[in-house]
Every structure is written in C-alpha cells, then in structure tokens.
Amino acid sequence: MKTKILFAGGGTAGHVEPALAVATWLQTNRPELQITFVGTKNGLENQLVPRAGFDLLHIPKVLMPRQVTPGIILWPFKMLIATIESIKICRKHELVIGFGGYACPPIYIAAALLRKPIFIHEANAIPGWANRLGAPFATQIFIAFARAGLKVGRWRNAQLTGMPIRAEILAVGKTTPGESAQIKERQLEKWQLSKDKPTVLVFGGSQGSRHINEAILQSLSLFTDRGVQVVHSVGRNNALPTSTENYLPLAYIEDMSAAYQAADLVIARSGALTCAELAAVGKFAVLIPLPVGNGEQAANAIDLQTAGAAEVIDDNKFNADWLISNWDEIWRKTRSFAPKNSHEISASAVIGKAIIDELEKQGG
Length: 364
What we know:
The protein has 364 residues and is an alpha/beta fold. It has helices spanning 13-29, 45-52, 75-90, 104-113, 129-134, 167-172, 177-191, 210-217, 220-226, 256-262, 272-281, 296-300, 302-306, 320-336, 347-361; strands spanning 4-8, 34-39, 55-58, 95-98, 118-122, 140-143, 159-160, 199-203, 229-233, 247-250, 265-268, 285-287, 310-312.
C-alpha cells in the first residue's frame, strides 16, 4: 500500500505554486508516494493542480470573519462542517503539509485531532492566520523569510528554507547570457513583439489588480514615447484591453519562466511568490504592496528593496503621474542592476527531504 501525503492550501498562486513545487520534487524523487491536494471549489488550485497531474479534493470554504457582523454567528458551524469533511480526508493520509489559504484551518484541526504529523510552510514575512492556527500542532515549520521566525512560540524554531519555486523558474537564473537571449527572442516572437525594444512585464498577482491595470493603461503614451513595449497580465476576471503595437494585454501568463526571460523590467504586487521568483530570476522590479491583511506584502518587499533589486511604492501613491514622473530614474536603476548569483539548495528539496525523513521515522 502506498504512503499517502496530503497537500493543503489554495486560493491564489502564492499558496498553490509553492505546494506544487514541493509535490513535484517528491514525485520525482519518491514516485512511490501517493500525493493528493485538498482545496476549495473556487480557488486557483482547480486550474493549477489538475494541470500538474495531481488529484484534488474539496472541502467547504470558510472565510475568517474580519468584522463583527450577524454572519459571525454561523462561522463556528461552518468551520465544524468543514472540519468533519477534513477528518474524513486526513484519516486516509499519513502526513499533512499546509501552505496557507482557506483550506488549511479545518485540515490542521482535523490532522491534530487524528494525531497526524503536520508540516507547515509560511510564504510571507508575516505569517497568515491559517498557519498561525496550525503552528501549535505542527511537527515542523518552514519559513520563506527570516523575519517570519521573529515570533513567539513555535515560530522561533521554524526552519528558514526560502520559497519553494518551480524548477523552470529556478533555471532562469542559471542560464548563460547566450541561452537567455535565445529564449527571450523566441518568447518575443511568440508574443509578436519587437526584439529591439525594451520589454516591461506587468502583473498584479494571479487575480490581477484593477488599480495597477488602470495606472498602466493611463501610462501607455509614456511607453510609446520611450519606445518601450508592455506585456500586461490583467487577471482572468478583468476585461481585456485593446492591444497595440507596443502593448500586449493577456488574461493570464501560463509560462512565467519564459515571460521573466523576455522582460527587462517587472511591475507587480509584492506577493511572497513574486518576490521569491524575482530574486531567483534576477530581474529589477517596481513593487506595489497590496494594502490589505496584516501588511505582509510590504514586509515581503523589504529584502529586495534592501538589495537594490526593487523600487517599492505605496499603493495609494502608485498611479500614471508617479510612473511618468519617476520613469527615467526607474529605467536607470533597471539598466544598472546586476543580480547576484544564488547557489542555495532549493527549498523544495529541503522540505521534501524533511517529509521523507518523517515518513521513514514512522516506518512509512
């Protein structure tokens, strides 16, 4: 009988992609393991997980109340229902690893009740509430940012691994200049863009950002005047603008590794996954932290800003006027940026080996 591992997490690419990176490493190195994902019915995991070849189970989505409303009365009952469903799933697996998101809280509770080993990876510099809930029950905690471990309790013993990133993204930072130039040229041809113009890659996370979208659309005259072409991922749920010779709007970018290779500059939110990928591929970026949650996106951007790899601007200050006024300085920093080579062991391998060690300890 195969040893079964349950991966929990979803909602956005920032939760799903790191989980897929670890799952893919395990599948490659220990193909005898049976890996299953659990998420909710309306998260991005429903596109990404099946595409990667893994089975996906569903539990009810339970939103954490952030304000006192009449709906808060129903929250414990919804969490109870989701936990009962999670118990049925966790009972069939030997180990649970969570990456945050809506699916994790009931899964953590279920795994703790069943005394299953729980591994947690926290992607953000400031841990989210789902992983904070699971931390007291965790066998081992992994973090992507050192400052995430500057907390009380179990977080102080967390292992700093960095962010699990897909192999093809990690490979971008290891290509030779000649290889990179060839990949860039092929991708620009695929997009039907010029290989002789600088290329700016814009995205606002897996769901897009209307605020960033509006600022970019209002700045198109700047890019045209400067001879710059823009590839803009607007998000699947947002209307697709009209393309021009220098502007290519896309609903979503599937091949991010090639997109990074083709880009000279990135303009994006500072989600944990985005920050880790930018560090891996060595691209200068303008980062606009999303001003929600507990400030994790602003904290995520600090390391890149300190390293001179990013210009960070508050969401309420980022607009077409700011971009036009600061463009020459941004482009100067882009041209002078020299990325540092990284030879760190991949986070996927570190976490994957820890999972294998735990299973072997239990005779799995």
